[in-house]
Amino acid sequence: MGSDEATYTGAYAQVLIAGGYAFIKYGLDNDRSGTAALVCRDIATGAVKWFFKYPRAYYETSNFIIVGDHVIVQSSAGLEGEDTSSVGSIYKINWRTSSGLATPEKTLTGIPGTLTDYPAVGYDGYAGASGVTSLVYDSGAIFTLGSNGMVYCFDFDLNPIWSYHTNGRAYYSAPVVYNNLLFAGMLDGHLYILDKNLGTLKTDIEVYQADYKGDIIGSVTMPSIVESDGKYYIFCTFSDGRGMSAQLYGNALYEYDGESDVKTIVEPKDRGYGSLGRMTAVETGDFKGVYFEGNKKLFRMNLNGNISILNKDVNTSHSYLVLINGDKLAATSYTKGTALMEFDLEGNIIGKYLEDEKYQHYCMAGLTVFNGGFIYGNDSSVISIKGGFGDGSPDPIPEQGLAPWQILLIVLGALAIILTLAYVGMRYGLKWEHPWNHIVSSINNFLFGEEYSHNTLSRHRLWLVMGIGLTLTLIAAIASLCIGPTTTLGVGEMFQNLFSAVGKGGNNLTYNELMVYSARLPRTLVAIAVGVGLSVAGAMYQAIIRNPLVDPYIMGVSSGAGTAAIAVISFDFTFFGLFPAHSIYLTAFTAAVGGILAFMCTMLLATKAGGTSINYVLSGVIVGLVFSAAQTLMLTFAGNHVTGALSWLYGSFSEITWSKVWLVLIPSFAMSFAVLFWAKEFNLVLLGEDQARQMGLNVKRFNRWMLIIASVLTSICVAFVGIIGFVGLVIPHLCRMMLGGDHRLVLPTSMAFGGFLMIVADIASRMLVPGFELPVGAITTIIGVPVFAYLLIKRGKMYDG
Fold first, then answer.
1. Greater pLDDT, 435 or 523
2. Is the dihedral of CA 450, 453, 454, 459 positive or negative?
3. Is the pLDDT at 437 greater than 90, yes or no?
4. I need a surface site. Which of 52, 363, 763, 782 has the fewest CB within 10 A?
């Protein structure tokens, strides 16, 4: 694989970072055989994790995207023949599970469209390209432009949602998505504004066109959008459409009402700025507008079109300025041997970086900033620098972020200081001779004091345990939002980004806002919901079957769900054509149906056998074995899909997005809280069927309905995240050891601690191994077993269930 990679050069697209890995798109093969490559490297060691080769038509300059566990990359090469109306291809790769020579999960080739009349040859330098441009991901959809003049919208599984035919062409520039609008600058000198959701044209702005040797030419780059007072201000640059040979560049500013009315604020014309790329939108307390570089100067333009020259000594950049933390700008330098520059918003140069001479080359790719460092590619190399720009020294001092163990050490140190200060305050301030003994004695009296009635003591214990559980869950949730494998935020910074993202309605977010609001918050909410649901289901099963060693999967639900999920993942089962192949919704729906089907088989068999508790257990074991055997057979023939299938079987929250949160959160919480109303009935069941029947409870009917609810609840929990074991076993058991067997106490505390355990497991799965996400189910077992064993040894004789 290393020798294959050595045949490629030129990282013309922006390098992306995810999960401790750098994703590099090499756009040119040295032997000119017509292939490009996408390489996944460990950012710390440089080791190659996987390698993917695909056909190219020209330099691969278009940017790809990473969404969750998948990288989606496009090719400039489509079908054979320049006049074809179809374009392609797009590849979807699971970057976490791939290794060696990667195989795409899905390939989309020959994307249909309508051929434009705009000339394909000569002016922008991309005459041979017949693919799609840079990709954009927004609100669950992927947007791109085609060399055939089409604007495309796909879902995450690369199924078409809509397309629109323009009169131009596009070869590398991405569309811009802002709120519910899509802006597409094309190679006919027009800027098209479409409805993002419907794909219908709202308006069409002719920015610049000129006659060149009988052809109408013109090129509009990606616009920058600034919203103010209900209006959209569109800052765009343009050229005469001849690519690297362009002789004319200019800029324009428009005011747009969001429908069809467009007002020109700055007329489009050449102002002597030289080569212009995309402008960078900046909003501060006293400024709204854009920054851009042209003719070795740094400019700023406000919403009125007023332009200020901030710096007259800037290195030429063929990329765009990157806004860093809202108060700095940085950009790569195009010319070989000139330094990258960092500016404050007044235009002052505050940092430079010049790479070693052997790595210097022409650079057109954008800069990626991460963890205080940055990474970028040029025509010969990829350069990763830790520690920021510095003062222009070619060897800046690396700065490492805190490792997880260092963070833990700091937390433990802070806790030790707090406990020491508390001891000093109680010993010398409150004059308690033995502070810890005094606290323990007070707690024991609160929980076991003889002056309180049994019901009062139960309430006291419930308040204490619930308080501890909810506090731990809240702390774990905050930690989950702050901690990540690549970026760790302070609590204040996290809440600032979270509230900012909520205020924006989840649109037009910064990197940190996107990370907190779109990546971490959904999986934290679902982790809580799944932990609550599985813990309540486990408590229900243990009460109905009257066996503290059963868990939510005793009725065969996990085996049925796993078998159905494997059928989807490994064999493209589409549930009889109702869903597109490889859809996460298909996997979730089929897994839920499989789990419920397995449960129904268990219920039928148990009812025929007599309907006793032991019948339910034995029937669940039999049905589970049958489905497990089917799983084994399918995995044997799964081929390249076996990794994806095993990943689902072991559980993961990596696929969770906002569109899936409510499908898990609402039913899980609704069913879990509803079960609290039957707490007294569960207590009656524990007395035995005869005594419960004498007290007016129809035991068989109650058991049947509770098992149905518990199994449906379990199916919902595993549908999107896979099988996560041990939570439904250890949490109810833990609560019984602390509070006894009263389900009025056990059920609510199971909900509190279940969410906590699941969040901790999710954090551990993301953080324990840098660059790789471990199975959550394995983590829950690793965490739960020692705790469970300790409590069993220390408190087992006091178990009252």
1. 523
2. negative
3. no
4. 782
Provide φ and ψ at 385, rounded to 5°. Answer: -125, 130
In sequence order, the 6+-apart residues with CB closer than 8 A to the CB of 314 are 293, 296, 297, 298, 341
Q: Quote the pLDDT of residue 182.
A: 95
Half-sphere exposure of 50 (CA within 13 A, CB side): 15
Per-residue pLDDT reduced to its tens digit, 586-642: 777 788 888 888 888 988 888 888 777 677 778 888 888 888 888 888 888 766 566
> Which residue intervals of 546-612 are DSSP H helices?
557-571, 584-609
Nearest to 550 by CA among 540, 542, 539: 542
Res 302 pLDDT > 90: yes
Work out the number of other CB atoms within 10 angstroms of the CB of residue 484: 17
Record the tokens describing residue 539, joined without a space.
């408590």
- Residues 75/131, Cβ–Cβ less than 8 Å: yes
Query: 89 preceded by cis ω (within 30°)?
Result: yes
**What's the Cα-to-Cα distance from 461 to each of 130, 443, 450, 795, rounded to whole Å?**
70, 10, 14, 16
User: Does 737 have pLDDT greater than 90?
Assistant: no
The two beta strands, 100-101 and 48-55, are parallel
How would you write 623-656 as a 3-class SS string?
HHHHHHHHHHHHHHCCHHHHHHHHHHHHCCCCCC
Render pLDDT for 12-27 as a digit per residue (tens, 0 to 9): 888 898 888 889 988 7
Spatial separation of the C-alpha atoms in residues 379 and 390, rounded to whole Å: 24
Which residues are registered as beta bridge partners of 70?
Answer: 67, 94
- In whole angstroms, give the CA distance from residue 70 to residue 265: 41
DSSP state of 516: I
Q: State the chain's mean pLDDT as an integer.
A: 80
- For β-strands 160-165 and 150-155, DSSP reports them as antiparallel
Distance (Å, rounded) from C-alpha 373 to C-alpha 760?
Answer: 29
Residue 56 has phi, psi (to 5 degrees) of: -130, 160
pLDDT value, residue 284: 87
Q: b vs e for 339-351, b when ≥16 Cβ sit within 10 Å of the residue's Cβ?
A: bbbbbebebebeb
Range with the lowest mean pLDDT among 102-111, 473-482, 554-563, 575-584?
575-584
- Enumerate residues 6+ apart whose C-beta is below 8 A from 197: 180
